[in-house]
Structures are given as C-alpha cells and as structure tokens.
Amino acid sequence: MALLLVADFDLRKDVLPWLRAQRAVSEAAGAEGGGSDVLENNYESLRVLNVERNGNIIYTYKGDKGNIFFGLYDCQTRQNEHLYTFEKDLQVVSCSVNSERTLLAASLVQSTKEGRRNELQPGSKCLTLLVEIHPVNNVKVLKAVDSYIWVQFLYPYVESRPLPENHLLLISEEKYIEKYRIQVTQEDGNRVVIKNFSHLSRDRIAEDFVWAQWDMSEQRLYYIDLKKSRSILKCIQFYADESFNLMFEALLDISLSDSGFKLVNFGCDCHQDQEKLSKHLTLCVFTNHTGSLCVCYSPKCASLEQITYSVLYIHKGHSKTFTAALGSAGSNVTKGITFLNLDYYVAVYLPGHFFHLLNIQHPDMICHSLFQTGNNEMIDMLPHSPLQSLSGCLVLDCCSGKLYRALFNQSYLLRFLWNTRLDCEKMAALHCVLSCGRGLRVLEGQIIQWVSENVSACHSFDLIQEFIIASSYWSVYPETSNVDKLLPYSSVLTWNTEIPGITLVTEDIELPLMKVHSFKGYWEKLNSNLEYVKYTKPHLHYNNSVVRREWHNLISEEKTGKRRSTAYVRNILDDAIKVISNLEARNLEPRLTPLLQEEDNHQRLLMGLMVSELRDHLLRHLQGVEKKKIEQMVLDYVSKLLDLICRILETIWRKHNLHSSILHFKGHGGAAEFAVFHVMTRILEAADSLFLPLPPGFHTLHTILGVHCLPLHNLLHYIDSGLLLLTETAVIRLMKDLDNTEKNEKLKFSIIGRLPPLIGQKICRLWDHPVSSNIISRNHVTRLLQNYKKQPWNSMIDKSSFRVEFLPLNYFIEILTDIESSDQALYAVQGRDNVDAEFVEEAALKHTTMLLGL
User: What are the TM regions of this chain, as residue ranges (predicted)?
Assistant: First the structure.
C-alpha cells in the first residue's frame, strides 16, 4: 500500500508485559500494589488516554475490584511508570500529566451502577481532579459539574528545570474553554504541592464554540464559533512564557449549525459511537512547517452511492470539493471518513472504498494527487478502525491501542509506477516518491530505470521532463521553503483530463484575517503564503524564456563575429565551470559515457546563462536569505538537472552494455545503439522544449549514434529539424574517421554544407579533397574582394607567368595577387593556412577539370 504505518507504540507489546511482571512481583510479595489486582480478564480494559507533546503516552486500566489505574509510557526510555490509582469505580473521560510528572489532571464520570455513589463529590456527574503525584498523592477537586470536561496541560519549550507554574486547559461540554494557572512549590526535598489551590487563577479562552481541535506538538488551539449561522475558525497560539495570542479568524463556508459539539485530539475519545461516525461530519485542521493551513471537512453522508469531502487550502486561497463514487448502490458506508496529516500531503481514507493522497504544497492540478479506489489491494491493508491524526505524521488507533508513524511506502509506490496504466497515476506516484526525502539518490536510480524503459509510455506529459523538473525541485526545496513559489514543481502547466472515480469543484475562498502584526516561525511562513496569494499576479515560478532570448543573441553575435564584451562572456563561462565542478564533486563513480569531456561552448553558454538568470531571480524574490546560500542553491539546482540527464544515459548505456568502440564513426549501429539513440533523442526533445542545458559531449555522442543508426536522408532530416545538433568536435572526428569513399564523400559534403560559416571553413582545412579546396578558395576570394574597388589595369598580361593560357582566369588571378601584395596585413591573416592566389588557381583548374569530366 502507498501508506506505511510503522508502530511506535503498542499497548499489548509495550505495556502488557510490564503489567504482568508487576502483578507477579506483587503476588510473590503477598501484597496489593500498583498493579497487583490486575487479572487476565481485566486486560481488555487497557486503553490509551492521551499522547503528550513530548511523546509520552498515558494509559489506563481497571483492576479486579474496579479500581482505576493510570500509567505512563516514556517514549525516550521505553519504560513504564505507575502514576496513580483511584480506588473508585469510575469511567475516565480525559487525562493529562504535566511535563515534570508531578501533577495529574483527570476527568472522570461517576458510576451509574445502583448502590454505588461517588464519595468525592455527591450529586455531580463529572469530576475534574488534580492529583499531586509525587510523593503525596493528594487529590483535589477542580470541578464537579453535570457536563463532560476534558483536560490538557500545556507543554512549553523550556530548559529541563521545574516550572513554578503549570497551565491547564479545561474544555467543557457547555462550550467554553478555560486556562488554569497552577502554582507549585517544593517542600521537604522532593515533595511537590499546589500553592493556594482554593485561589487558582483562570482565564476564559473561548466560549460558545461548536468544534475545537488541539495541536499538541505546536501548542495551538483551533476552534469554531457561530456568528449569525456563519462558521468562524479561530486559532490561539500558546507560547513558552505561558502567554497566548489569538492568531487569526477565518470565515468557513461550512454549515455547523446542527452538528452538535465535537472535539478533536483532546485525548483518545472512546465514548463516541463508532457505528454512527458515518452519519456525522468530520472536520480537522492540518498544518506543516512550510506554512500550510488546511481545513479538511466531510459533511454527513446522505447517499449510498457517493461521498463528498472538501479541503480548504487556506494558504493557497482556494478550496477543492471532491465527490467520490462508492461503487454499487448496495455498498454501505459503515465507517466514517478519516483525514490523515502526512506533512506535504493529506490522506483521505474511507475503509473499503477509496484512498486519496492530496498534495497540499501544490494542489492546483488534480494530477499531482493520487486517487485509488476499493478495487486496489491497498485499501484493505489499512486499519478499518477509526484513526486519529496527531502532529508530526503520528496516527493513533484508539481501538487497538497502537501509535503509528505514517510514511510513504516507497517500494509499493515504485511497483505502482511500473504497473499502472493511467498517466494521472504515474504523475501522482512519481511526485509522492520524490517527496519522501529518504535515500533520494537510491530512489532516483530506481525511477531512472523506470523512465529509461518507458520514455514513450505517457501521452499526457513528457516523462523525462517531469522527472527532471520534479527531482531537481525536491533536491533544493528542503533548504528554503519559499523556493516552492519560485522554482517550477512540474513541467505540466494545465491538466484537463478527468480522474476516474472522482469529480472536482474548485472555488476561491476568503483569506483569514491575521490578528497579530509580528510573526515568527510557522506564522511568518503562513503570512508569507497569504501575502503571495493576495498580491502576486502572475506567479513567480522561474522559466528559461530570458535565457532562451539571451542565448540566441550570443549565438547570433558569434556567427557575425560581433561578440559583446569578453568580460561578460567570460563570467558566463566561469559560472558554467562552477556547475561542472560542482557536478563532478558529487559524482562518486566513474562515468561510462563520454560526457563533460569537451568544451561545447554553446552548452556552456546556456549553462552559465541559466545560473546567472536563476541567481538573479532568487536574489530578487528570496528575502532574508544569504547571497552565498542562494548562489550555492543555484549551482546545486543546475548541477542536479545535468546529473539526472547523465544518469539516465548511464543507465541505458549499462543496460545495453555498450562499449567505447562505438565512439567512432566507422561501422553500423545495432539494436542496442538504436535504443540509446532513441532515448537521447527524447532527452534532447525534452530539454529543448524547456530550454534546459545538456551536458557537454551530449550532442557529439548523439551525432555519432545518429550516423551509425540512420540512413543519410533521415540523418539530414534530423539535422535540419534540430533533432541532431552538429558540434565542431563531432564533425572533426567524422572527417578523420571516415575515408573518401563515394558514400562517405556524400555524407561529408552534406555535413559541411550545414555548418555555420566559421566552423565550416575550419573543417574544410582538415579535409584533403577537391570539394574542400573549392570551398576554401571561394571563401578566400570572398574575403579579398569584399572591399575591392576596381582600378585601371595594364591590358598587356605577361602570359609567361601563368601555367595555362586562359585569359579570364589569368586576369582574375593577377587581380588577387595584386590585392594580396598591396595589403600584406590582410594577407598575413587570411593566408596563414597557405591559401593564396596560386592555391585558388589550382583549385579552380581542378574544379573545371572535374566539371568537364577530364
């Protein structure tokens, strides 16, 4: 299955053996202690009550005489500790312990059995008690009311020292929340007692709310109150100094007027009738460290054929409402819908029906989220009992007493990539795998294997493009979270294809009203996200349009010989050198393919231009990030692009077991070379569409394989359409490797005719052939005569100085000789390759002889 639930804690394995050992010790001592009257048939009463911020787990169980025992499991030491025993037959509603384990707060319901009355507070339904744990065991009644009460200690981030004051939240079924300040003092060594219990200070935090959720990791309280039937979501942040602030108010387009009263994550609530979960709304708030804020909501299920749920991406300014088909009409929904927080994703899970992984960082396109129906094996592999999503990807199964850590199942997702036929599922699974972050290079290697064998498998998007863009994004994203607004996440800009089994409606929503003006940490990132939504149009994602324009300008200047300042070009090429050095430093294995071994100035210019433009883009929009860090991030990003291309080639090269012997133009290509040529052509198309640089040496290798694999007319068609780019290195090697057979001469001549003039002239000097001599002569004459002004000439020509009595040629050669002698500086430059009037004369005679067939 795509989701892997790894058990961090299991009541049956981590607590039960300890209880049995305690009972054995007590029986051996012949006394009743903390766990002495726990009999085997009472182990079924063992259940989790709460998970505190530090990860410690509070649990309870009933003794044989009905006594209520409270225990704590320390997640750091993996040890159990007995906290307290109530020698009364009571039902536990809620429980919390302070960080020093000196105070226990518990809310208990009085027994309703006939003849049993609670002696602590007669006449009241629910007791809220404060217990001094160590060593006094003194019990104080905080509240005795007829409504249910839930309790939760605050856990500030402080040094490991006793706090003089503890803070306790009380949440009442009567729809109010209070915060108690409990001062403690140390007496007689280790005794910790409450000071002035009868005069405890308290603050009213909220009232008239209908829903509340506790975030134990971030110490935040979310709640919704109704104003004129409008649902207002509010959030209170509690700080280390025990102060608190109302952070925001957000209007939700959700009807809660008849939903009753509901709490989320205030301990493990086992009092809800699980059979009725499907008939009640489900609502929860999820955040992560990048500043995301999502409200997940599913109304009452009124249909047996479909179910509707919504996710309000408040940090993005819009909501998405999904309607999922439930299969046949007789398919009953016996369980409630579950939302799970998975950091960059939210999972929506309906046991036996569907599993939906929603991308909350980039929710704009549905293809980046993975939807699977009950026909998939993974649906039945997840627990069917209700799951409670806590902070930090923790998931609590109250029924089994297990605390899980939710992770993506990488091996399953990779298998799914190989087997699925739908483009939308390939896209979503690819992004899920890359977001894992664990062993990314190994994962990339497995994905590259899949990509290299399925380059043409996707019709809705270019697989190579998507992999390169997505993997490069995830390689730098963890360093700076705001990069998600500045770097492309996907090569796909729009998606209009429907996802089978689900429909979607997207709506804009009102942005929350922030109630404070100074932000730190998460709140600074959330505010940045909201500001981006509010003020940034269009979006700021980087693209290579400026690079494309500037690169074409530089290439045009090179062809005309009018290159701008050498310092500008040198800086661009220096950036390219940094990228290649960065790339080589990260590569630990020798490469089989001959990449990064030649100059290829065109690709180096493109590489350096991308570094320059991307660096300027990030410096312009990434506020508060050091310039040095941004520069390194840019080098890493561009290096990653090139590295992925190199690794795709390495993979296909190894698969077909190619050798260095193919790096010569002689011979013909087989099936293996054609397969590599096909993949390289797809890489070139992908890079050209996004205007991405390719590793120096790529075009040379591609040309060699093209000559091996393609007939001449196809080869020339590839060159003319831009699918094969001729490099100077490739053409020089071709001229040297191939002899002057009729077939090879035709190939060489066709290649030379397609080269830029400057490179063509250089190549002609390396080919000892009448055709090349003719070209050289024409170029020489063109240079000599381009500024020629006709002068009066002596009509008498000395015929003895010429080898042939052909007056037009003799006259022409004399003009050239005169120009050469009159401008020795020009001739010193032009004639450095032994090209002069005599060479031109000889070439002309040879060419004429060939034309006449003599």
Answer: none
